[in-house]
Automatic annotation (TrEMBL):
Binding, substrate: 12-14, 27, 90, 210
SUPFAM superfamilies: Radical SAM enzymes
Oligomer status and interactors: Homodimer.
Sample GO molecular function, one term: magnesium ion binding
Gene from which the chain derives: queE
EC code(s) of this entry: 4.3.99.3
Cofactor annotation: Mg(2+); [4Fe-4S] cluster; S-adenosyl-L-methionine
GO annotation, biological process: tRNA queuosine(34) biosynthetic process
Official protein name in the record: 7-carboxy-7-deazaguanine synthase
Class of the enzyme per the UniProt entry, highest EC level: lyase
UniProt catalytic activity: 6-carboxy-5,6,7,8-tetrahydropterin + H(+) = 7-carboxy-7-carbaguanine + NH4(+)
Length: 210
């Protein structure tokens, strides 16, 4: 298995229940809901993406020949110390590339493996922390996990229906873009109206971390 990695870097997790945690981010190239090209955005199944996941040219990116090579790269980015090792695997859509061999290679190096997925592909076994973020108009097959992170507002998604899915945490994250202020108000309104939903903000953007 070779892996196409857009970028990999050490930062703090900015989103969700684990926000504030030191983590190596491993961003896989490619997504099944958008090509990543601006000219395709309006027609894409997911059209609000805030991320460049095209190619392998980012910091810490590249093509990796196997799970051991990539896990060693993640370990080097973590640096000294074996305590509280955390890797967040994202993208793009990580389930296009993440296999059990890579999950195991990271766990053998002492990492807790967290994953951010759009839920349209089944989750790879062995993940320690699964975040699913549903996109309107797509079929979400992965309806269980640790946190469900709803980017809001999204026409065509009913939070009450999502509440029937099997997640430990229900999070609402304001849709970033030209109407961020209105998104924040809508997210606050959801959390105030339906108390199972907790507001999460993209803290890395506030403090200027990648
Ligand atoms: C770039 S995605 C990559 C992982 C996966 N493809 C997914 O969509 O969950 C990482 C996280 O950012 C969220 N996200 C993407 N664009 C966003 C935006 N404009 N505002 C708020 N969150 C956004 C996604 O919903 C997801 O939770
Ligand atoms: N700091 C930081 N936290 C994040 N949490 C989820 C992210 C993502 O792009 O998947 C992300 C990201 O890009 N940066
Ligand atoms: S599914 Fe995730 S990576 Fe793909 S376009 Fe949407 S937010 Fe971006
Ligand atoms: Mg991001």
């Amino acid at each position: 298995m070779t892996y196409a990695v857009k970028e990999a870097f050490l930062t703090l997790q900015g989103e969700g229940v684990q926000a504030g945690s030191r983590a190596v981010f491993l961003r896989f190239a490619g997504c099944n809901l958008w090509s990543g090209r601006e000219q395709d955005r309006a027609m894409a199944q997911c059209n609000f993406c805030d991320t460049d996941f095209v190619g392998t040219d980012g910091p810490g990116g590249g093509k990796f020949a196997g799970a051991e090579e990539l896990a060693a790269h993640v370990e080097a980015l973590w640096g000294e110390g074996t305590e509280a090792r955390l890797v967040v695997i994202t993208g793009g859509e990580p389930m296009l590339q993440l296999d059990e061999g890579l999950v195991e290679a990271l766990r053998e190096r002492g990492f807790r493996v967290a994953v951010e997925s759009n839920g349209t592909l089944p989750a790879t076994p062995g993940i320690d922390w699964l975040c699913v973020s549903p996109k309107a108009g797509t079929v979400v097959v992965q309806r269980s996990g640790d946190e469900l992170k709803l980017v809001w507002p999204q026409k065509g998604i009913d939070p009450a229906e999502l509440e029937t899915w099997e997640f430990d945490h229900f999070l609402v994250q304001p849709l970033d873009g030209p109407n961020l202020k209105a998104s924040i108000d809508a997210a606050i309104d959801l959390a105030m109206t339906r108390p199972r939903w907790h507001l999460t903000l993209q803290a890395h953007k506030v403090v200027g971390l990648p």
